[in-house]
Amino acid sequence: MQLLLTLALESPRTPKAPPNVDEIFANWQWINESDPLMSPIWAVVAMSVIILVMLVLRIIKWRNSRNREDGPLLVFHQIARQLELDITTQWLLIRVAQQQNLPTPLTLLICDSTFSHHAKAYVKSLPAQRQQSVLNQLSKTHQHLFA
């Protein structure tokens, strides 16, 4: 134990110099000379190809999901925005259309009597404690749209 302590005290404590560029790349020389496929350039190219493929797949996925959103529901939201319906009213009309098995909520915006008929049927299907508040909201929407 004393021998180790003596050696530790006698050894110089000079910090190791950082390697220079030649020493760093000297370790890579065997890779470049033995197999050209293992060079760092090929690693960068392979990573670039992988990133490019992932980007293309993400763009394809985005385009497919965007196409699903196009259609009647998107048109409904655009028209509802122009009619100055807030988002809660839009979602209420979507729920009415779904519960009444309408092909699109746009059906409710076309005709006064269609809106009234489906709104009343929807309100009847709700629990008693919610009927009055939903009826009030649908009445205000009816007046806003058809007044």
Percentage beta strand = under 5%
Global structural class: mainly alpha
**Counting H and I runs of at least 4 residues, what is the number of helices?**
9
| Low-pLDDT residue intervals, each spanning 5 or more residues | none
Total number of β-strand segments?
A: 0
Choose one word for the global shape: elongated
Helix content: over 70%
- Biggest sheet character: none
- The helix/strand series, from N terminus to C terminus, equals HHHHHHHHH
Mean pLDDT score: 81
Indicate how many domains the architecture comprises: 2
CA-to-CA gap between the ends? 99 Å
Rg calc: 36 Å
Nutshell version of this structure?
This protein is mostly helical and about 150 residues long.
Question: Explain this structure to me?
Answer:
The protein is built from nine helices and no strands. By secondary structure, the chain is mainly alpha-helical. The chain folds into two domains: 47 residues; 75 residues, no CATH class. The termini are far apart.
SSE topology:
Blueprint: H1 2-10, H2 21-26, H3 29-34, H4 40-69, H5 72-82, H6 87-99, H7 106-110, H8 112-124, H9 128-146
Helix pairs in contact: 8-9
Please give a handful of descriptors for the protein shown.
single chain; 147 residues; mainly alpha; 2 domains; 0% strand; elongated
